């Protein structure tokens, strides 16, 4: 395969079987628990060719070595294990992790659990304040970032934070779910490990759960591989096959979703039923706060007909959700904040549905 291909062509081309007469054009779904002895693969908890096709593609896109995990949370748990000793879950007591005050609520929940178990000490920071993040890294083992954050859409100065982390010997991990490697490549910006909820944009069709880590170095890749094998945090072959199939159109889906999001943001900012619009300037996630508080936010969830009232994001279908309905969501997220994930439907249909629902609820 030519190595000078653009990202769009890479999405279409990578992860295919060798170009040979009679070969299939796409990878097979390998459904097996084990392999005949004396080959490269022995037991399917440590390897599967369908995973490899997906991993090769995502690794190239993010500029590191990728591993598929059972879900985004499994990948995040694996990345946090890097503060300890390789494949073991045990960590030296008091190990410090710096994390966003508004991280994805599963990540926040996992960090809180590890903290209450005494396994970690968490320093929560406002990621928009670079000096606060850098200060918190003194004596820390790992800095965990999301940018933009879910659902407050705060943006961190990633190159500055990663550079300071490296200077202090602090491992850096970045959740790149919202941006995808098409909008942001954290390893190029200096991150050690990228994590993804492949469930969202990468697979893109709201039909599976899958996660991934991408490591900048072979050493980190080996440690994450050991963790995955020992913890059995592995995906099913079908999930990785579907995810790779979804990724073939990632550039087209994202282009449409981002263009529609920009149109909707413009109109929402002038809408009489909207108090505040949060949008980091790119991507397809928007957070709105309707006039009239929780009641209006709940009414909006019930009044939409095209938008799906559901948790999750990054699919072809537009979804919205009042995030504070989850008990784990930080209390500093406004109670009436509604997160919109713009899909690839016609933007005028999306606008009409949203506008009608907002007017009905206000
Ligand atoms: C959904 C999500 C996760 C968790 O991923 P799962 O695949 O649901 O386990 C992690 N980070 C972000 C930013 C997410 O949106």
TrEMBL record:
GO molecular function: cystathionine gamma-lyase activity; cystathionine gamma-synthase activity; homocysteine desulfhydrase activity; methionine gamma-lyase activity; pyridoxal phosphate binding
Domain of life: Bacteria
UniProt GO BP: cysteine biosynthetic process via cystathionine; transsulfuration
Spans annotated as Disordered: 1-27
Segments of skewed composition (Polar residues): 1-12
Catalytic activity: L-methionine + H2O = methanethiol + 2-oxobutanoate + NH4(+); L-homocysteine + H2O = 2-oxobutanoate + hydrogen sulfide + NH4(+) + H(+)
Keywords recorded for this protein, A-Z: Pyridoxal phosphate, Transferase
InterPro entries referenced in this protein's UniProt entry, alphabetically: Cys/Met-Metab_PyrdxlP-dep_enz (IPR000277), PyrdxlP-dep_Trfase (IPR015424), PyrdxlP-dep_Trfase_major (IPR015421), PyrdxlP-dep_Trfase_small (IPR015422)
Positions bearing N6-(pyridoxal phosphate)lysine: 200
Protein's UniProt name: homocysteine desulfhydrase
Family: Belongs to the trans-sulfuration enzymes family.
EC number(s) per entry: 4.4.1.2
A single Gene Ontology CC term: cytoplasm
Transmembrane segments: none
Needed co-factor(s): pyridoxal 5'-phosphate
């Amino acid at each position: 395969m030519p190595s000078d291909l653009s990202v769009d062509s890479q999405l279409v081309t990578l992860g295919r079987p060798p170009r040979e007469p009679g070969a299939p054009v796409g990878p097979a779904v390998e459904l097996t628990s084990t392999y005949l002895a004396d080959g490269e693969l022995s037991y399917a908890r440590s390897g599967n060719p369908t995973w490899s096709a997906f991993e090769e593609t995502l690794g190239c896109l993010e500029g590191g070595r990728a591993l598929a995990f059972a879900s985004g949370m499994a990948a995040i748990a694996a990345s946090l294990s890097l503060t300890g000793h390789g494949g073991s879950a045990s960590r030296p007591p008091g190990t410090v992790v710096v994390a966003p005050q508004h991280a994805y609520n599963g990540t926040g929940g996992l960090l809180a659990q590890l903290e209450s178990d005494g396994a970690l000490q968490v320093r929560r920071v406002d990621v928009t304040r670079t000096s606060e993040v850098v200060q918190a890294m003194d004596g820390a083992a790992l800095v965990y970032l999301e940018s933009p954050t879910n659902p407050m859409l705060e943006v961190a100065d990633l190159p500055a934070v990663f550079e300071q982390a490296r200077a202090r010997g602090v491992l850096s991990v970045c959740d790149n779910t919202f941006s995808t490697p098409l909008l942001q490549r954290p390893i190029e910006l200096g991150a050690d490990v990228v994590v993804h909820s492949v469930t969202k944009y990468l697979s893109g069709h709201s039909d599976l759960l899958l996660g991934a880590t991408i490591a900048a170095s072979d050493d980190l890749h080996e440690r994450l591989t050991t963790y995955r094998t020992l913890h059995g945090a592995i995906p099913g072959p079908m999930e990785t096959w579907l995810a790779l199939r979804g990724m073939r159109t990632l550039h087209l889906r994202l282009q449409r979703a981002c263009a529609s999001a920009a149109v909707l943001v413009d109109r929402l900012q002038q809408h009489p039923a909207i108090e505040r619009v949060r949008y980091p300037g790119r991507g397809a996630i928007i957070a709105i706060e309707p006039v009239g508080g929780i009641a209006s936010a709940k009414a909006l969830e019930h009044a939409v007909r095209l938008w799906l009232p559901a948790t999750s994001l990054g699919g072809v279908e537009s979804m919205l959700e009042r995030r504070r309905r989850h008990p784990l969501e930080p209390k500093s997220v406004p109670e009436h904040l509604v997160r919109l994930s713009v899909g690839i439907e016609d933007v005028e249909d999306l606008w009409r549905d949203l506008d009608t629902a907002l007017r009905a609820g206000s």
